[in-house]
Amino acid sequence: MEGQDKRPHPFHVMAKPAGPRCNLACQYCFYLEKEQLFPEAPLAAMSAGVLESYIRQYIESQEAPEVTFAWQGGEPTLMGLDFFRRAVELQQQHANGKRVTNTFQTNGILIDDEWAAFLAEQGILVGLSIDGPAELHDARRRDKGGRGTFDRVMRGMECLRRHEVEFNTLTCVHRANADRPKEVYRFLREHGSGYLQFIPVVERAAAAPRADGLTLVRPGDSPEAAVTPWSVLPEQYGRFLMGVFDEWVRKDVGRTFVQLFDVSLEAWMGMSPSLCLFRETCGEAMALEHNGDLYSCDHYVYPENRLGNILETPITALAASEQQQLFGEAKRDALPRCCRECPVLFACAGECPKHRFARTANGEAGLSYLCPAYKKFFKHVDAPMQFMANELRHRRPPANVMEWMRQPKKGSAPGATPWANDPCPCGSRKPYKNCCGRKK
Protein backbone atom coordinates (compact mmCIF):
# COMPACT_ATOMS: atom_id res chain seq x y z
CA MET A 1 0.00 0.00 0.00
CA GLU A 2 1.32 3.42 -0.94
CA GLY A 3 2.57 5.42 2.04
CA GLN A 4 2.99 2.33 4.18
CA ASP A 5 6.37 1.95 5.89
CA LYS A 6 8.65 -0.27 3.89
CA ARG A 7 10.41 -2.61 6.27
CA PRO A 8 13.57 -4.47 5.19
CA HIS A 9 14.24 -8.14 5.41
CA PRO A 10 15.97 -9.14 8.66
CA PHE A 11 19.34 -7.42 8.71
CA HIS A 12 22.47 -7.23 10.80
CA VAL A 13 24.68 -4.26 11.62
CA MET A 14 28.36 -4.26 12.54
CA ALA A 15 29.05 -1.17 14.62
CA LYS A 16 32.45 0.53 14.69
CA PRO A 17 32.38 2.85 17.72
CA ALA A 18 36.04 3.87 17.35
CA GLY A 19 35.81 4.10 13.57
CA PRO A 20 39.00 2.98 11.84
CA ARG A 21 41.16 3.80 14.87
CA CYS A 22 43.39 0.93 15.98
CA ASN A 23 46.35 0.41 18.30
CA LEU A 24 47.97 -1.95 15.77
CA ALA A 25 49.24 -1.52 12.22
CA CYS A 26 48.65 -4.97 10.72
CA GLN A 27 50.18 -4.94 7.26
CA TYR A 28 47.16 -6.50 5.61
CA CYS A 29 44.46 -4.39 7.31
CA PHE A 30 42.01 -3.01 4.74
CA TYR A 31 40.33 -0.71 7.25
CA LEU A 32 43.19 1.23 8.77
CA GLU A 33 43.64 3.51 5.78
CA LYS A 34 39.94 4.46 5.96
CA GLU A 35 41.20 7.14 8.37
CA GLN A 36 41.72 9.13 5.17
CA LEU A 37 37.93 9.27 4.68
CA PHE A 38 37.21 10.70 8.13
CA PRO A 39 39.01 13.95 9.06
CA GLU A 40 38.30 13.25 12.73
CA ALA A 41 39.72 9.71 12.51
CA PRO A 42 42.61 10.13 15.00
CA LEU A 43 40.01 10.99 17.65
CA ALA A 44 37.07 9.06 16.21
CA ALA A 45 34.59 8.01 18.86
CA MET A 46 30.87 7.32 18.78
CA SER A 47 29.03 10.09 20.59
CA ALA A 48 26.46 9.52 23.30
CA GLY A 49 23.74 10.69 20.91
CA VAL A 50 24.70 8.28 18.12
CA LEU A 51 25.06 5.42 20.61
CA GLU A 52 21.60 5.86 22.11
CA SER A 53 19.93 6.43 18.74
CA TYR A 54 21.59 3.34 17.29
CA ILE A 55 20.66 1.10 20.20
CA ARG A 56 17.05 2.29 20.27
CA GLN A 57 16.58 2.07 16.49
CA TYR A 58 18.30 -1.27 16.08
CA ILE A 59 16.25 -2.96 18.80
CA GLU A 60 13.04 -1.51 17.34
CA SER A 61 14.01 -2.70 13.83
CA GLN A 62 14.44 -6.34 14.82
CA GLU A 63 11.26 -8.41 14.91
CA ALA A 64 12.92 -11.48 16.46
CA PRO A 65 12.73 -11.95 20.25
CA GLU A 66 16.55 -11.78 20.49
CA VAL A 67 18.68 -8.89 19.24
CA THR A 68 22.46 -9.18 18.83
CA PHE A 69 24.79 -6.20 18.71
CA ALA A 70 28.17 -6.68 17.03
CA TRP A 71 31.01 -4.34 17.99
CA GLN A 72 34.09 -4.12 15.78
CA GLY A 73 36.65 -1.67 14.52
CA GLY A 74 39.30 -0.57 14.13
CA GLU A 75 39.70 -1.67 17.72
CA PRO A 76 36.61 -1.29 19.93
CA THR A 77 38.49 -1.54 23.25
CA LEU A 78 39.91 1.94 22.48
CA MET A 79 36.50 3.29 23.51
CA GLY A 80 37.13 2.17 27.09
CA LEU A 81 34.99 0.13 29.45
CA ASP A 82 32.67 2.97 30.45
CA PHE A 83 31.41 3.27 26.88
CA PHE A 84 30.33 -0.37 26.82
CA ARG A 85 28.90 -0.22 30.33
CA ARG A 86 26.71 2.62 29.06
CA ALA A 87 25.83 0.63 25.94
CA VAL A 88 24.59 -2.26 28.09
CA GLU A 89 22.52 0.15 30.22
CA LEU A 90 20.91 1.60 27.10
CA GLN A 91 20.20 -1.86 25.72
CA GLN A 92 18.38 -2.79 28.93
CA GLN A 93 16.50 0.52 28.86
CA HIS A 94 15.26 0.02 25.28
CA ALA A 95 14.94 -3.79 25.24
CA ASN A 96 11.12 -3.70 25.42
CA GLY A 97 10.95 -7.35 26.46
CA LYS A 98 13.50 -8.60 23.94
CA ARG A 99 16.65 -10.47 24.91
CA VAL A 100 19.74 -8.46 23.98
CA THR A 101 23.17 -10.03 23.45
CA ASN A 102 26.53 -8.68 22.31
CA THR A 103 29.51 -9.89 20.30
CA PHE A 104 32.87 -8.18 20.38
CA GLN A 105 35.78 -8.49 17.94
CA THR A 106 39.18 -7.49 19.33
CA ASN A 107 42.90 -7.85 18.77
CA GLY A 108 43.18 -8.65 22.48
CA ILE A 109 45.99 -6.22 23.25
CA LEU A 110 44.06 -4.24 25.88
CA ILE A 111 42.18 -7.16 27.40
CA ASP A 112 43.01 -7.35 31.10
CA ASP A 113 41.23 -8.74 34.16
CA GLU A 114 38.86 -5.76 34.39
CA TRP A 115 37.84 -6.11 30.74
CA ALA A 116 37.50 -9.88 31.03
CA ALA A 117 35.38 -9.62 34.19
CA PHE A 118 32.99 -7.25 32.40
CA LEU A 119 32.77 -9.47 29.32
CA ALA A 120 32.09 -12.50 31.50
CA GLU A 121 29.48 -10.71 33.61
CA GLN A 122 27.58 -9.59 30.51
CA GLY A 123 27.93 -12.90 28.68
CA ILE A 124 29.56 -11.19 25.70
CA LEU A 125 30.92 -13.48 23.00
CA VAL A 126 34.43 -12.39 22.01
CA GLY A 127 36.18 -12.90 18.69
CA LEU A 128 39.93 -12.82 19.22
CA SER A 129 42.22 -12.15 16.25
CA ILE A 130 45.24 -14.45 16.12
CA ASP A 131 47.03 -15.81 13.05
CA GLY A 132 48.74 -18.89 14.48
CA PRO A 133 52.02 -19.51 16.32
CA ALA A 134 54.29 -16.55 17.15
CA GLU A 135 56.34 -16.64 13.95
CA LEU A 136 53.27 -16.67 11.70
CA HIS A 137 51.22 -14.23 13.78
CA ASP A 138 53.99 -11.65 14.10
CA ALA A 139 54.78 -11.81 10.38
CA ARG A 140 51.90 -9.40 9.65
CA ARG A 141 50.23 -8.46 12.96
CA ARG A 142 52.51 -5.78 14.39
CA ASP A 143 51.98 -2.62 16.40
CA LYS A 144 52.64 0.91 15.22
CA GLY A 145 56.25 0.60 16.37
CA GLY A 146 56.79 -2.48 14.18
CA ARG A 147 56.90 -4.89 17.12
CA GLY A 148 55.22 -8.28 17.16
CA THR A 149 52.02 -8.66 19.16
CA PHE A 150 51.79 -12.40 19.75
CA ASP A 151 52.77 -12.39 23.44
CA ARG A 152 50.30 -9.62 24.24
CA VAL A 153 47.48 -11.39 22.42
CA MET A 154 48.21 -14.58 24.35
CA ARG A 155 48.06 -12.65 27.62
CA GLY A 156 44.67 -11.32 26.58
CA MET A 157 43.55 -14.86 25.75
CA GLU A 158 44.67 -16.05 29.17
CA CYS A 159 42.57 -13.30 30.81
CA LEU A 160 39.53 -14.48 28.84
CA ARG A 161 40.16 -18.06 29.93
CA ARG A 162 40.69 -17.11 33.57
CA HIS A 163 37.34 -15.35 33.69
CA GLU A 164 35.61 -18.04 31.60
CA VAL A 165 34.68 -15.66 28.81
CA GLU A 166 33.23 -17.43 25.78
CA PHE A 167 35.44 -16.67 22.79
CA ASN A 168 36.32 -17.85 19.33
CA THR A 169 39.39 -17.17 17.22
CA LEU A 170 39.54 -15.28 13.93
CA THR A 171 42.55 -16.12 11.79
CA CYS A 172 43.49 -14.20 8.69
CA VAL A 173 44.98 -16.45 6.02
CA HIS A 174 47.70 -14.60 4.14
CA ARG A 175 50.84 -15.24 2.14
CA ALA A 176 52.94 -15.83 5.28
CA ASN A 177 50.84 -18.53 7.01
CA ALA A 178 48.85 -20.16 4.21
CA ASP A 179 51.47 -22.83 3.45
CA ARG A 180 51.30 -24.22 6.99
CA PRO A 181 47.64 -25.19 7.49
CA LYS A 182 48.10 -28.05 9.93
CA GLU A 183 50.53 -26.08 12.07
CA VAL A 184 48.09 -23.17 12.28
CA TYR A 185 45.13 -25.45 12.94
CA ARG A 186 46.88 -27.51 15.61
CA PHE A 187 48.03 -24.37 17.39
CA LEU A 188 44.51 -22.94 17.44
CA ARG A 189 43.04 -26.25 18.51
CA GLU A 190 45.48 -26.45 21.41
CA HIS A 191 45.34 -22.81 22.55
CA GLY A 192 42.02 -21.51 21.30
CA SER A 193 38.44 -22.10 22.33
CA GLY A 194 37.47 -24.75 19.83
CA TYR A 195 35.59 -22.30 17.57
CA LEU A 196 37.62 -21.18 14.57
CA GLN A 197 37.09 -18.69 11.74
CA PHE A 198 39.43 -18.40 8.78
CA ILE A 199 39.37 -15.20 6.70
CA PRO A 200 41.28 -15.00 3.39
CA VAL A 201 43.30 -11.81 2.95
CA VAL A 202 42.73 -10.49 -0.58
CA GLU A 203 43.55 -6.86 -1.35
CA ARG A 204 44.61 -4.97 -4.45
CA ALA A 205 46.73 -1.83 -4.50
CA ALA A 206 46.88 1.05 -6.95
CA ALA A 207 50.25 2.15 -8.30
CA ALA A 208 49.81 5.46 -6.46
CA PRO A 209 47.36 6.74 -3.82
CA ARG A 210 44.09 8.19 -5.13
CA ALA A 211 42.97 11.75 -4.55
CA ASP A 212 41.22 10.62 -1.35
CA GLY A 213 44.51 9.19 -0.02
CA LEU A 214 43.51 5.53 -0.32
CA THR A 215 45.94 3.03 -1.81
CA LEU A 216 43.87 -0.16 -1.65
CA VAL A 217 41.51 -0.47 -4.58
CA ARG A 218 37.76 -0.31 -4.14
CA PRO A 219 35.84 -3.51 -4.99
CA GLY A 220 34.93 -3.42 -8.67
CA ASP A 221 37.52 -0.78 -9.57
CA SER A 222 40.69 -0.99 -11.66
CA PRO A 223 40.77 -4.60 -12.91
CA GLU A 224 44.44 -4.09 -13.74
CA ALA A 225 45.40 -3.26 -10.13
CA ALA A 226 47.92 -5.65 -8.62
CA VAL A 227 47.12 -8.03 -5.81
CA THR A 228 49.19 -7.07 -2.78
CA PRO A 229 52.26 -9.16 -1.85
CA TRP A 230 50.68 -10.20 1.43
CA SER A 231 47.41 -11.45 -0.10
CA VAL A 232 46.89 -15.20 -0.13
CA LEU A 233 47.26 -16.88 -3.53
CA PRO A 234 44.23 -18.88 -4.74
CA GLU A 235 46.16 -22.15 -4.88
CA GLN A 236 47.57 -21.46 -1.41
CA TYR A 237 44.15 -20.85 0.08
CA GLY A 238 42.73 -24.00 -1.50
CA ARG A 239 45.57 -26.09 -0.07
CA PHE A 240 45.17 -24.39 3.30
CA LEU A 241 41.46 -25.20 3.53
CA MET A 242 41.97 -28.79 2.40
CA GLY A 243 44.87 -29.26 4.82
CA VAL A 244 42.81 -28.05 7.77
CA PHE A 245 39.78 -30.07 6.69
CA ASP A 246 41.75 -33.30 6.34
CA GLU A 247 43.00 -32.95 9.92
CA TRP A 248 39.62 -31.92 11.29
CA VAL A 249 37.48 -34.55 9.55
CA ARG A 250 39.65 -37.38 10.86
CA LYS A 251 40.10 -36.23 14.45
CA ASP A 252 37.96 -33.33 15.61
CA VAL A 253 34.40 -33.40 14.27
CA GLY A 254 32.09 -32.53 17.15
CA ARG A 255 34.98 -31.28 19.27
CA THR A 256 36.39 -28.41 17.23
CA PHE A 257 34.09 -26.19 15.19
CA VAL A 258 35.31 -24.45 12.03
CA GLN A 259 32.90 -21.87 10.66
CA LEU A 260 33.57 -22.64 7.00
CA PHE A 261 33.00 -26.37 7.51
CA ASP A 262 29.73 -25.76 9.37
CA VAL A 263 28.52 -23.46 6.58
CA SER A 264 29.56 -26.00 3.96
CA LEU A 265 27.53 -28.67 5.71
CA GLU A 266 24.53 -26.34 5.60
CA ALA A 267 24.89 -26.27 1.80
CA TRP A 268 25.03 -30.07 1.59
CA MET A 269 21.91 -30.16 3.78
CA GLY A 270 20.13 -27.84 1.35
CA MET A 271 19.88 -25.09 3.96
CA SER A 272 20.30 -21.36 3.45
CA PRO A 273 23.91 -20.45 4.29
CA SER A 274 24.39 -18.60 7.57
CA LEU A 275 27.42 -16.77 6.12
CA CYS A 276 26.84 -13.95 3.62
CA LEU A 277 29.84 -15.05 1.52
CA PHE A 278 27.90 -18.03 0.21
CA ARG A 279 24.39 -16.64 -0.09
CA GLU A 280 22.84 -16.04 -3.49
CA THR A 281 22.34 -12.37 -2.65
CA CYS A 282 23.84 -10.17 0.05
CA GLY A 283 23.09 -6.78 1.59
CA GLU A 284 21.80 -7.99 4.95
CA ALA A 285 25.03 -7.18 6.82
CA MET A 286 25.77 -3.46 7.01
CA ALA A 287 28.41 -1.38 8.76
CA LEU A 288 27.76 1.56 11.07
CA GLU A 289 30.54 4.09 11.46
CA HIS A 290 31.22 6.05 14.63
CA ASN A 291 29.45 9.16 13.30
CA GLY A 292 26.17 7.38 12.51
CA ASP A 293 26.82 6.81 8.80
CA LEU A 294 25.49 3.46 7.59
CA TYR A 295 27.24 1.64 4.73
CA SER A 296 26.21 -1.27 2.53
CA CYS A 297 28.90 -3.59 3.89
CA ASP A 298 32.01 -3.61 6.02
CA HIS A 299 34.08 -4.04 2.84
CA TYR A 300 32.28 -1.18 1.10
CA VAL A 301 32.86 1.77 3.43
CA TYR A 302 33.26 4.29 0.62
CA PRO A 303 31.29 7.49 -0.14
CA GLU A 304 29.38 5.84 -2.98
CA ASN A 305 28.18 3.06 -0.66
CA ARG A 306 26.99 5.36 2.12
CA LEU A 307 23.27 4.76 2.65
CA GLY A 308 22.74 7.73 4.96
CA ASN A 309 23.02 8.70 8.60
CA ILE A 310 20.81 7.19 11.30
CA LEU A 311 20.43 10.57 13.00
CA GLU A 312 18.74 11.84 9.85
CA THR A 313 16.99 8.76 8.41
CA PRO A 314 15.67 5.74 10.36
CA ILE A 315 17.89 2.70 10.13
CA THR A 316 14.98 0.61 8.83
CA ALA A 317 14.51 2.99 5.90
CA LEU A 318 18.21 2.88 5.06
CA ALA A 319 18.28 -0.92 5.21
CA ALA A 320 15.20 -1.15 2.99
CA SER A 321 16.38 1.47 0.49
CA GLU A 322 16.52 0.78 -3.22
CA GLN A 323 20.26 1.45 -3.11
CA GLN A 324 20.79 -1.38 -0.63
CA GLN A 325 18.41 -3.70 -2.44
CA LEU A 326 20.29 -3.24 -5.70
CA PHE A 327 23.59 -3.72 -3.92
CA GLY A 328 22.45 -7.09 -2.57
CA GLU A 329 20.92 -8.32 -5.82
CA ALA A 330 24.01 -7.42 -7.85
CA LYS A 331 25.81 -10.39 -6.33
CA ARG A 332 23.40 -12.77 -8.06
CA ASP A 333 22.79 -10.77 -11.21
CA ALA A 334 26.47 -10.22 -12.05
CA LEU A 335 27.48 -13.89 -11.91
CA PRO A 336 29.45 -14.99 -14.98
CA ARG A 337 28.02 -17.81 -17.08
CA CYS A 338 30.67 -20.31 -15.98
CA CYS A 339 29.62 -19.73 -12.35
CA ARG A 340 25.96 -20.32 -13.16
CA GLU A 341 26.93 -23.67 -14.72
CA CYS A 342 29.45 -24.66 -12.02
CA PRO A 343 28.73 -27.86 -10.06
CA VAL A 344 29.70 -26.20 -6.76
CA LEU A 345 27.54 -23.10 -7.23
CA PHE A 346 25.14 -24.45 -4.58
CA ALA A 347 27.93 -24.12 -2.01
CA CYS A 348 29.81 -21.07 -3.32
CA ALA A 349 27.23 -18.73 -4.92
CA GLY A 350 30.09 -16.84 -6.52
CA GLU A 351 31.66 -15.95 -3.14
CA CYS A 352 32.12 -12.38 -1.91
CA PRO A 353 31.62 -9.59 -4.50
CA LYS A 354 34.71 -7.89 -3.06
CA HIS A 355 36.85 -10.67 -4.55
CA ARG A 356 35.15 -10.88 -7.94
CA PHE A 357 37.75 -9.01 -9.99
CA ALA A 358 39.13 -11.95 -12.01
CA ARG A 359 38.02 -13.00 -15.50
CA THR A 360 36.76 -16.32 -16.76
CA ALA A 361 38.52 -18.38 -19.41
CA ASN A 362 36.22 -16.67 -21.94
CA GLY A 363 37.20 -13.23 -20.71
CA GLU A 364 33.96 -12.53 -18.86
CA ALA A 365 34.32 -10.23 -15.85
CA GLY A 366 33.07 -10.97 -12.33
CA LEU A 367 34.85 -14.21 -11.43
CA SER A 368 36.09 -14.56 -7.86
CA TYR A 369 39.85 -14.35 -7.47
CA LEU A 370 39.47 -17.29 -5.05
CA CYS A 371 37.41 -19.41 -7.47
CA PRO A 372 40.18 -22.02 -7.96
CA ALA A 373 40.50 -22.38 -4.18
CA TYR A 374 36.83 -22.89 -3.48
CA LYS A 375 36.28 -25.16 -6.47
CA LYS A 376 39.05 -27.50 -5.29
CA PHE A 377 37.94 -27.33 -1.67
CA PHE A 378 34.26 -28.04 -2.27
CA LYS A 379 35.06 -30.96 -4.58
CA HIS A 380 37.57 -32.25 -2.04
CA VAL A 381 35.01 -32.30 0.80
CA ASP A 382 32.08 -33.61 -1.24
CA ALA A 383 32.07 -37.23 -0.07
CA PRO A 384 32.53 -36.58 3.67
CA MET A 385 29.99 -33.74 3.50
CA GLN A 386 27.49 -36.10 1.87
CA PHE A 387 28.12 -38.62 4.62
CA MET A 388 27.67 -36.07 7.43
CA ALA A 389 24.54 -34.64 5.83
CA ASN A 390 23.04 -38.13 5.64
CA GLU A 391 23.89 -38.78 9.28
CA LEU A 392 22.12 -35.59 10.30
CA ARG A 393 19.06 -36.45 8.22
CA HIS A 394 18.86 -39.75 10.08
CA ARG A 395 19.42 -38.02 13.43
CA ARG A 396 22.82 -39.54 13.89
CA PRO A 397 25.90 -37.54 14.93
CA PRO A 398 27.96 -36.22 12.00
CA ALA A 399 31.04 -37.12 14.07
CA ASN A 400 30.50 -40.66 12.75
CA VAL A 401 32.37 -39.42 9.69
CA MET A 402 35.65 -39.90 11.56
CA GLU A 403 35.11 -43.66 11.69
CA TRP A 404 33.93 -43.66 8.08
CA MET A 405 37.09 -41.82 7.03
CA ARG A 406 39.20 -44.55 8.64
CA GLN A 407 37.56 -47.24 6.54
CA PRO A 408 39.49 -48.07 3.36
CA LYS A 409 37.83 -46.90 0.17
CA LYS A 410 38.16 -49.25 -2.74
CA GLY A 411 40.72 -47.95 -5.20
CA SER A 412 41.01 -44.51 -3.66
CA ALA A 413 42.38 -42.56 -0.75
CA PRO A 414 40.11 -41.93 2.25
CA GLY A 415 37.72 -39.10 1.55
CA ALA A 416 38.14 -39.20 -2.22
CA THR A 417 35.19 -39.48 -4.60
CA PRO A 418 34.14 -43.15 -4.79
CA TRP A 419 34.30 -45.22 -7.95
CA ALA A 420 31.03 -45.64 -9.86
CA ASN A 421 30.18 -49.09 -8.42
CA ASP A 422 31.36 -48.39 -4.85
CA PRO A 423 28.69 -48.10 -2.12
CA CYS A 424 27.48 -44.51 -1.97
CA PRO A 425 29.00 -42.65 1.00
CA CYS A 426 25.58 -41.25 1.93
CA GLY A 427 24.68 -44.65 3.41
CA SER A 428 21.91 -45.57 0.96
CA ARG A 429 23.70 -48.86 0.06
CA LYS A 430 23.16 -48.09 -3.62
CA PRO A 431 26.10 -47.90 -6.03
CA TYR A 432 27.55 -44.41 -6.08
CA LYS A 433 26.73 -44.05 -9.83
CA ASN A 434 23.02 -44.69 -9.12
CA CYS A 435 22.79 -42.43 -6.09
CA CYS A 436 24.70 -39.24 -5.27
CA GLY A 437 26.97 -39.76 -8.28
CA ARG A 438 24.05 -38.90 -10.53
CA LYS A 439 24.16 -35.33 -9.21
CA LYS A 440 27.58 -34.71 -10.72
Q: What distinguishing features does this structure have?
A:
alpha/beta; 15 helices; 33% helix; globular; disordered N terminus
Describe this structure in words.
- The chain is α/β, with parallel strands linked by helices.
- 33% of the residues lie in helices and 13% in strands.
- It is built from 15 helices and 14 strands.
- It has helices at 48-61, 81-94, 113-121, 134-137, 150-162, 181-191, 234-251, 259-268, 315-319, 322-333, 337-340, 345-348, 371-380, 382-393, 401-406, and strands spanning 12-15, 66-71, 99-106, 125-129, 167-173, 195-200, 204-205, 226-227, 257-258, 285-288, 293-295, 306-309, 358-359, 365-367.
- It has a 10-stranded mixed beta sheet with strand order 9-6-5-4-3-2-1-10-11-12. The protein has a two-stranded antiparallel sheet with strand order 7-8.
- Helix 1 links the parallel strand 1 (12-15) and strand 2.
- The longest helix has 18 residues, at 234-251.
- Mean pLDDT is 92; it is low at 1-5.
